[in-house]
Design a protein that fits this description.
The protein has 13 helices and four strands. It is of the alpha+beta class. The longest helix is centred in the first third of the chain and has 33 residues.
């Protein structure tokens, strides 16, 4: 429903800009109007995405957080030992992301609202400045730029500020509401940020302190933050090669209707597919249209490439193509230790399949004898 609302608002923006353009510049051609609006919208959208993440960065620093990474689109600038490194990474449902290392919990508490509201605050301030500028300018082109900046800014504020649980990732407003529910949700939020920081620092997920992964109350399993913590707990089991436990925990979480966001739900299915194929089981029941769509949407993700590799293992040409893509993206992955873990899972799968091929040949020879 919210997508329809925002699409309607954007359509109204386009119509409004076109009418203003034609009124102020009556001789302008339809083509010049459309090109101008499209270019203006693209520039304003990119600008507001960047400034939204800058807002998180600034207010995060004010709140005592430490800068970790800044992403726009698929371009990531990662803080590694005080030096910025450019990497490539994309996440379905997000146009950008500023990740920071939170302060340690004090009596189970830490600041989070100002950091998470920072993006919306920045978009709103820019929109208000644009409105103010439009009141004092006599230039039609500057007026149009101000109109676009203000409108896009307010739209971004609404899209990120109104609590919305979206298909893949929830927005800032929903995240804030989820964290504010109770101390368990706050701990879960702290955990996922600290795990990401450890990965960036080269600490393997299996080596992240065990005591960070606490048990959460059953009545909190629908909470988005708690669900994210359970997701990381399962991925940690995968890193420790506890495949039976991974299968059990995923199936158990799905039965208990844990409130995973879309990205985490499908990434866990990737792990389930791997574990089942490793044991030689059929996975056709998991290959639903929505899962296939997710694999396509996240095709440049190293975990998804590993999943595609094992799914197409018997098609040597296609599998080799996915392996080459994996090797290319692994070099640019922000978290080297995570890419290496994925590479090790591919190697482990290769060894297992080759061993099974040898056993099948030996069985066939015995049958012939």
């Amino acid at each position: 429903m919210h997508n329809l609302i925002f699409r309607t608002l954007n359509m109204m923006l386009g119509i409004g800009c076109a009418l203003i353009y034609m009124a102020l510049i009556p001789n302008a051609s339809f083509a010049s109007i459309m090109i101008g609006l499209m270019f203006g919208m693209i520039v304003c959208n990119v600008f507001h995405v960047i400034m939204h993440e800058v807002g998180h960065l600034v207010f995060g620093l004010i709140s005592g957080y430490e800068f970790l990474s800044f992403r726009v689109g698929s371009h990531v600038w990662l803080n590694i030992n005080g030096k910025l490194q450019h990497k490539r990474f994309s996440l379905a449902g997000t146009a950008g992301q500023c990740l920071m290392v939170p302060p340690m919990l004090q009596d189970g508490k830490m600041p989070f609202k100002l950091y998470l509201w920072g993006g919306c605050i920045t978009n709103t301030v820019i929109a208000l400045i644009a409105v103010g500028c439009s009141l004092f300018t006599q230039n039609v082109y500057i007026d149009l730029v101000c109109y676009l900046l203000a409108y896009v800014g307010f739209i971004y504020t609404l899209q990120n500020g109104l609590p919305l649980k979206l298909d893949m990732m929830s927005n800032d407003g929903f995240t804030i509401d989820s964290i504010a529910e109770n101390d368990a949700a706050l701990h879960a939020y702290w955990l996922q940020m600290m795990v990401t920081a450890q990965l960036a620092r080269g600490v393997a997920l299996k080596d992240v302190p065990e005591e960070w992964f606490i048990e959460y109350p059953y009545d909190q399993l629908q909470n988005q933050m708690v669900a994210a913590a359970i997701y990381f707990k399962i991925i940690r089991m995968m890193s420790k090669r506890e495949f039976d436990d991974v299968e059990y925990e995923i199936e158990n979480a799905l039965q208990r209707n844990v409130g995973f966001v879309g990205v985490h739900k499908y990434m866990l299915r990737c792990e389930l597919v791997y574990c089942r194929l490793l044991k030689g089981y059929n996975v056709d029941s998991y290959m639903t249209p929505d899962f296939k769509q997710f694999l396509q949407m996240m095709r440049n993700n190293v975990t998804v490439m590993r999943t595609q590799y094992v799914l197409n293992y018997k098609n040597k040409e296609l599998a080799q193509r996915y392996l080459q893509m994996f090797n290319s993206m692994a070099k640019l992955h922000p978290y080297t230790v995570e890419a290496e873990d994925e590479r090790e899972l591919i190697r482990l799968f290769d060894e297992s399949m080759k061993q099974k091929e040898v056993e099948e040949l030996e069985d066939a020879d015995r049958d012939n004898d």
